[in-house]
Amino acid sequence: MIRTLFNFMTSRKTKGQGMVEYALLVALIAVVVIGALVLLGPAIAQKFQQITQQLG
Q1: What angle do CA 10, 12, 7 make, to 5 degrees?
Q2: Which DSSP helix (H) or strand (E) runs through 49?
Q3: Cβ neighbours for 28, distance < 8 A, ≥ 6 positions apart
Q4: The model scores a pTM over 0.85
Q5: Which sequence spans correspond to the domains of the chain?
Q6: Mind listing the pLDDT tens digit for each residue in 22-51?
Q7: pLDDT for res 11
Q8: What is the model's pLDDT at position 17?
Q9: What is the rounded CA–CA span in Å between residue 37 and residue 49?
Q10: What SS3 state is found at 56?
Q11: What InterPro entries does the record point to (predicted)?
């Protein structure tokens, strides 16, 4: 019984730790995407303006 309780307690910690790791990974990806958009945003906007001017 003690072994079952120990296994239950340790498995919950592992699952919680995995969720924290996924949350940190998602946050890191979000920071990278935001940084890329900040750096490349003006160039992309300029390209879209050029395309709309050529079309219209």
Answers
A1: 35
A2: helix 2-55
A3: none
A4: no
A5: 1-55
A6: 999 999 999 999 999 999 999 999 999 999
A7: 65
A8: 72
A9: 17
A10: coil
A11: Flp_Fap
**The tokens 């003690």 sit on which residue?**
2
Take residue 46 and report the two structure tokens written for it.
Answer: 């300029």
Task: Pull the structure tokens for residue 20.
Answer: 């924290």
What's the CA gap between 51 and 56, in Å, rounded?
9
**DSSP secondary structure, 6-25, as one string:** HHHHHHHHHHHHHHHHHHHH
Distances (CA, A) of 24 to 4, 12, 34, 37, 55: 31, 18, 15, 20, 43
Residue 50 carries which side chain, given as an amino acid letter? Answer: Q
Token digits of residue 14: 């592992």
